[in-house]
Amino acid sequence: MSSHTVEPSLPPPGGEPEPLLPRPERARAHRPPGPRFPGRFAELVDVHALTLLRATVGIVFVGFGVLKLFPAASPAEQLAVDAATKMTLGLVPETVLLLSLAALETAIGIGLIAGRRLLRPALVAFFLHMGGVFSTLFLLPDAMWQPHSPAPTMEGQYVVKNVVLVAVCLVVAAHEWSRGSGRRPRGR
Predict the structure, then answer these.
(1) pTM of this prediction exceeds 0.90
(2) Helix residue ranges per DSSP H, the chain
């Protein structure tokens, strides 16, 4: 339940009294003149921020997952296969690994885009997948790090940039899992 208090105001000299508006409407009524588009756009983005975040990460995952369905289309294909081969001790054929990764990434993307009942399983799968992705930094050190330097190679940068996706999905997960507990995260 929300209650608004209305503060009385004195009429401006020689003018009509200002109508008594609840606080949010008063704030909007007293905005200085200027471009309205940036403010309205910011409000729109703010209202839909979580949907925007999860949908964009979902689109990225669907895109990269689908690329792995086509031989040599994904720039990370060999890196993913090499890491997955090490993780499975070479017991799973490369073709099966690549198709499994393609299916997993595509499913995660669809779950993030669709939301609703698919969101929580997609988030769990995402974080498990990221564990595998970041393990390549240790499993394939020659491919991930420049010799005699702490700087990542191009392939290493490809892996490290996933911290952004992890941060986005942490925000989405915090919001989603706080909904189930009846608590809202701070700042919202």
Answers:
(1) no
(2) 23-29, 37-47, 49-67, 77-87, 94-114, 116-139, 141-144, 154-160, 162-181
